[in-house]
TrEMBL record:
Residues 68-137, 207-293 form the E2F/DP family winged-helix DNA-binding domain. Atypical E2F transcription factor that participates in various processes such as angiogenesis and polyploidization of specialized cells. Mainly acts as a transcription repressor that binds DNA independently of DP proteins and specifically recognizes the E2 recognition site 5'-TTTC[CG]CGC-3'. Directly represses transcription of classical E2F transcription factors such as e2f1. Acts as a regulator of S-phase by recognizing and binding the E2-related site 5'-TTCCCGCC-3' and mediating repression of G1/S-regulated genes. It comes from Knipowitschia caucasica (Caucasian dwarf goby). The chain holds residues 1 to 524 of 759 of the full protein. One of its GO terms (molecular function) is DNA-binding transcription factor activity, RNA polymerase II-specific. This is Transcription factor E2F8. It is found in: Nucleus.
Length: 524
DNA sequence: AAATCCCGCCAAATG
DNA sequence: CATTTGGCGGGATTT
């Protein structure tokens, strides 16, 4: 009956660090200095405010300051993450109760599910029981990423992306070049598992597990195999759709996909694994995301996988590293020892990698993009500074600056702020591909031409689109529940305008600054 | 107008 | 049948 329905009050304090509305602020303030930080503070102030309101009433007062941003999944996720350490103690069981979280963050359950799903896709949490999840933090993140990268390679995503990038909106990768690669498993890949963790009781792959969780993993895979670690939504959507059973390249489908991608991107962003950027090309800029998470991860878990040196493309079979759960059988492999091992290694790595930009070497990882691009590095450093950051810690001792920060870009291409206005294109920010033409591998970047401002629209799909917009339900759009909301929203937005100047899309955008500046001085 | 993406209905999956 | 999960897309907000 109710062994786990009701969260026991015991844990209440969430173990080590109970979040306090001010703790975060203190940190921020202490670190503050440039105006950018001010903005951060401002933002957190708002957060605190929202947080403070206790009673569920006061639509006018409490809600006044809220805007869409305040309810964004990203922010929510950040708040969620704040209450757990990046590297939890193995001994402790940080278990998460959805109800608690939902109420503590004062959001509907639904939202929590979204977050949990992508976190789960990274194995940062795992469902332990009905209403419960277990927190793992970044303990296995490295491994997960390694596995995902591999899976992505096996999937031939890299090639796909290239195709789309220069070939423009093409349909499926029918081309089937003489790619002797021959990825035998052309098949859709399901949830990628880690040997040690996850996949406990609950249905990790209860057959309909075709979305968020999986989509999230795929999305990450894209980043991990993309030469310049940048992925635009269009491309991602394109690829992810193609994957899903056959075609059905509806425009609607695309739209929906993109929506989801945004959702995922938002939590990925709060995890500081990616950042929003813009790829600029002749046609104009295109929103995209750039991987800013760890670049090199150890590939421990595979046990015997270890002796396999080819880091760049461990051609090894997926059995070793990634485990694709397909059918009904919930085959889980648990190796507590592995987890432990991994953890210790991870720790070590963390320390080591905290040294400023360690050029490609170490694991001899992807050597294919091993080019000395001082410029890029330099810019990267600037970006980092700008970036600074403020999460992770929040009071604890063990926190440590967190690992992903530094490694950011041994060779990751970056955005170079361009002072002089370019002709026409109005590109104030250019995407500087690390390999501008020298390497053969650079072909991916050579021309970023893609779809036109028309965007989503694709010639082929146009023809038979209308087919059936499948607006199954949803059409009833009754006004009853909505009306109130609408009014409320209206109120909110109104007050928003008066209370808040433009600057906002910032915090994590390294580029926001330059873009705003320049755009104001010279609009494209 | 386009890019974002919140909200929450309601269908599956589970209990 | 009650709940828990979580697709999915309308449409509000932002840019």
């Amino acid at each position: 009956m109710g062994p786990l329905t009701t969260p026991e009050k015991g844990v209440e304090g969430h173990c080590v660090d109970p979040w306090t509305p001010t703790s975060n602020l203190k940190i921020l303030i202490s670190a503050a200095s440039p105006d950018i930080r001010n903005r951060e503070i401002e933002r957190s102030l708002e957060e605190a405010e929202v947080y403070c309101r206790e009673d569920a009433e006061e639509p006018e007062e409490a809600e006044r300051m809220t805007s869409r941003k305040d309810k964004s999944l990203g922010l929510l996720c950040r708040k969620f993450l704040e209450r757990f350490p990046n590297f939890p103690d193995k001994d402790k069981d940080y278990d998460i109760c959805l109800d608690d979280v939902a109420s503590e963050l004062s959001v509907e359950r639904r939202r929590i599910y979204d977050i949990m799903n992508v976190l789960e896709s990274l194995h940062m949490v795992s469902r332990s029981a009905k209403n419960r999840y277990m927190w793992h933090g970044r303990t296995n993140l490295s491994q997960t990423l390694c596995v995902l990268q591999k899976a992505g390679q096996e999937q031939g995503y890299s090639r796909r992306m290239q195709q789309l990038r220069l070939g423009g909106p093409h349909q499926q990768p029918e081309e089937e070049e003489e790619e002797n690669q021959q990825p035998q498993q052309n098949r859709e890949l399901c949830f990628v598992e880690l040997p040690g963790v996850e996949c406990k009781l609950a249905s990790v792959n209860s057959r309909k597990d075709k979305s968020l969780r999986v989509m999230s993993q795929k999305f990450v895979m894209l980043f991990l195999v993309a030469c310049p670690r940048v992925v635009s939504l269009d491309i991602a959507a394109q690829i992810l759709i193609g994957e899903d059973h056959g075609e059905a390249q509806d425009k609607n489908k695309f739209k929906t996909k993109v929506r989801r991608l945004y959702d995922i991107a938002n939590v990925l962003r709060s995890l500081k694994l990616i950042e929003k950027v813009h790829v600029t090309e002749e046609r104009g800029r295109k929103p995209a995301f750039q991987w800013v998470g760890p670049e090199k991860f150890q590939q421990v878990q595979g046990v015997e996988e270890t002796r396999n040196t080819t880091a760049a493309s461990c051609g090894s079979s997926k059995e070793n590293c990634s485990k694709k759960l397909f059918s009904d059988k919930r085959s889980f492999t648990r190796h507590p020892s592995l987890i432990k091992l991994a953890r210790s290694i991870q720790e070590d790595r963390r320390r080591v990698s905290s040294a400023p930009s360690s050029p490609a070497k170490a694991t001899a990882g992807d050597s294919l993009m091993d080019f000395p691009n001082k410029m890029a590095e330099l810019a990267a450093i600037c970006k980092l500074q700008l970036d600074h950051e403020s999460s992770g810690s929040k009071g604890s001792e063990t926190s440590r600056p967190s690992l992903p920060r530094t490694p950011v870009t041994p060779l990751t291409p970056v955005l170079l702020p361009r002072q002089q206005q370019d002709s026409g294109g109005g590109a104030y920010v250019v995407y500087a591909p690390p390999c501008v033409r020298p390497q053969p591998t650079s072909l991916a970047v050579r021309s970023m031409t893609f779809d036109s401002p028309t965007g989503v629209k694709r010639p082929g799909a146009e023809g038979q689109t209308e087919a059936s917009p499948r607006k199954r339900r949803r059409e009833c759009k009754d006004a009853s529940p909505k009306l109130g909301e609408i009014l409320q929203n209206r109120l909110k937005s109104r007050s928003l305008y008066s209370s808040r100047p433009p600057l906002r899309a910032l915090h994590l955008d390294p580029e926001f600054q330059s873009s705003t500046n320049l755009s104001s001085r010279h609009s494209p």
